[in-house]
Amino acid sequence: MDPRIKPDIFKQKVACADCPFRREGGVRHTPEMAASYMAHFLTRPGSTFPCHKSVPKDDTREAWSEWQDGQVLCAGGLIFAAKHGAKNDLVRFAEHAGWYRPDQHPPEAFAEVFDSIPEMMLAADWEKKDEP
Question: What does the CA dihedral 87, 130, 28, 88 come to, rounded to 10 degrees?
């Protein structure tokens, strides 16, 4: 296993202010990007998706980058997946290892995150044309 995958990547408990999974605030991307973000937590078996705030400042983010030390998983995405009963391979492993439990997120964090795929898609920025 990648040595950068360790218990502290699950330490974020609430979605950050820029999280695309937040009902209010959060960045809004094209519907295609929103669907891609959701897929990391709902359908991609071993996928990781870092919190935007944990991506190093020198990362241009022009393309999907390798996982880097100090990054944490997106709490909004973890909560979104928990609302759907979805657990990718990484989450299943982390639960088995005792690194993660969906109930580590406070109830108010669940209220801040979209409940459904249609709700998140309706909030997407349908006017944007291209994104990196």
Answer: 0
Amino acid present at 44: R
Q: Give residue 115's pLDDT.
A: 97
Angle, helices 75-84 vs 31-42, to 10°: value is 70
For residues 94 and 108, what is the distance between their CA atoms, to the nearest angstrom?
Answer: 23
pLDDT confidence band for 71 (50 / 70 / 90): confident
Our count of domains for the chain comes to 1
Paired with 113 in beta bridges are 22
Assess if residue 96 is contained within a domain.
yes
Structural domain includes residue 131: no
Q: Is the pLDDT of residue 131 over 60?
A: no
Model confidence, pTM: 0.87
β-sheet bridge partners, residue 128: none
